[in-house]
Design a protein that fits this description.
two-stranded antiparallel sheet; 11-stranded mixed β-sheet; 41% helix; elongated; alpha/beta
Length: 310
C-alpha cells in the first residue's frame, strides 16, 4: 500500500522507487501483488506515466490514510523514546539549495545524527501534503489551512560585474547606460523570455530598460560564472555574489538601483503537536535562513534594509 501511495503521489515507478529507496522493479512487484490480492487493476501503465483506474482512485485515499496512520505511530514512538530521529524530506528551488540551504542542512546532520535528511531541488511550486514533503522553502505564500507558511525574509537582486569588464566597458552611471553594455539575463520568469528587460528601482523611482542579452539562463550559476569571467553584467541576489565580492572577482554597479524583491517562506503541513524532528529542523534552519536573507542591503552603498517580514 505504501508503494502504491508513493506511485500515486510521484506519478511514475522510477520516482516512487527513488522516494522509497528501492528498485523500480521492486515497486512494480509490490503494486502487482496488491492488484492480485484485491483482484482488480489499479494502474494503467505506459512508458512515461501511470494512470489510475477507478479502483485505483478509490484505493489511493485509503493508501494516503495508511501513510498518515503510520506517520502518527512513528511520532508516538519517537515521543516515547524522546529522540530526534527519522526521515525529513525538504524541497527547495535551486539557488536556495545551492547557496543557502545545503550548508545549513549539513550542520544539522552533524548536530542531529538520528535525522535522515533528503533535499529535493525543484523550481516548480509544490504542495507538501500532496507530494509527501515535510518542508518546502518557496517564494509564494499559501492560503491553505492545512499548511503553515513561516516568513524567512526577502530576496532582492542587484547588478554585478567583474572589475576587468568595468575597466574596459563604456561608462555606467545610470540605468539608461545599460543599453551600451553586455547583459547576462535571468529567464526564470517567463515574460522575460519574450521581452528582455530590467525594471530597476531606487528610492521609489523606477526605470524600465530594454536589454540585449549576450547570455541567458534560467539559473543563477551560469550568469554568475559569466559575470566573473567578464562577459557582462548580471542581476544576482547578494547571497549568490557574496563570496566573489569579498575576493574582488565581482563588484556592484549602479549603487542604489535594485531589481525585483520577493518574500521567502518555510512551508510545512500543520500538525499539533509538532513532531520533535520538525521542532529540531525549524529551530535550526529558520534563524540561520533569516540571518542570511537579512543581508539584502545595497552592496554598493549599504543602503536601506529590505521590507519587514513581520
Amino acid at each position: 500500500m505504501l508503494a502504491f501511495d508513493a506511485l500515486v503521489r510521484r506519478g511514475s515507478f522510477t520516482a516512487a522507487a527513488e522516494e522509497l529507496d528501492c528498485t523500480k522493479s521492486r515497486v512494480s512487484q509490490l503494486v502487482k501483488a496488491l492488484e492480485k490480492d484485491l483482484g482488480s487493476v489499479l494502474v494503467l501503465r505506459n512508458t512515461r506515466r501511470v494512470a489510475l483506474t477507478e479502483a485505483g482512485q478509490r484505493l489511493a485515499a485509503h493508501a494516503r490514510e495508511l501513510r498518515g496512520l503510520l506517520e502518527r505511530a512513528r511520532l508516538d514512538v519517537n515521543e516515547t523514546e524522546g529522540e530526534v530521529s527519522g526521515p525529513l524530506v525538504i524541497s527547495s528551488i535551486t539557488s536556495f539549495a545551492q547557496y543557502l540551504l545545503a550548508p545549513i542542512l549539513a550542520e544539522l546532520a552533524v548536530l542531529q545524527p538520528g535525522l535522515q535528511l533528503k533535499l529535493q531541488v525543484e523550481n516548480r511550486l509544490q504542495d507538501p501534503i500532496a507530494e509527501g514533503l515535510d518542508f518546502c522553502i518557496r517564494t509564494r505564500n499559501v492560503h491553505d489551512d492545512a499548511l503553515v507558511a513561516k516568513p524567512l525574509g526577502f530576496v532582492r537582486e542587484w547588478a554585478f560585474a567583474s572589475p576587468d569588464y568595468l575597466a574596459k566597458a563604456p561608462p555606467l552611471e545610470a540605468p539608461d547606460d545599460l543599453i551600451h553594455h553586455r547583459i547576462l539575463l535571468d529567464t526564470s520568469r517567463p515574460k522575460l523570455r519574450d521581452a528582455p528587460e530590467w525594471l530597476l528601482e531606487k528610492d521609489g523611482a523606477q526605470k524600465l530598460i530594454r536589454v540585449q542579452p549576450v547570455l541567458s539562463s534560467h539559473q543563477y550559476a551560469p550568469l554568475l560564472s559569466g559575470a566573473i569571467a567578464g562577459s557582462g553584467i548580471a542581476l544576482l541576489p547578494p547571497y549568490v555574489a557574496a563570496e566573489h565580492l569579498k575576493s574582488g572577482r565581482l563588484a556592484p554597479v549602479l549603487p542604489g538601483w535594485s531589481h525585483d524583491c520577493w518574500p521567502v517562506f518555510l512551508v510545512y503541513p500543520y500538525r499539533h503537536p509538532l513532531p520533535r524532528k520538525y521542532e529540531a529542523f525549524i529551530q535550526h534552519v529558520v534563524p540561520r535562513m533569516r540571518a542570511l536573507l537579512e543581508n539584502s542591503l545595497d552592496p554598493g552603498q549599504g543602503g536601506a534594509a529590505a521590507p519587514s517580514s513581520e
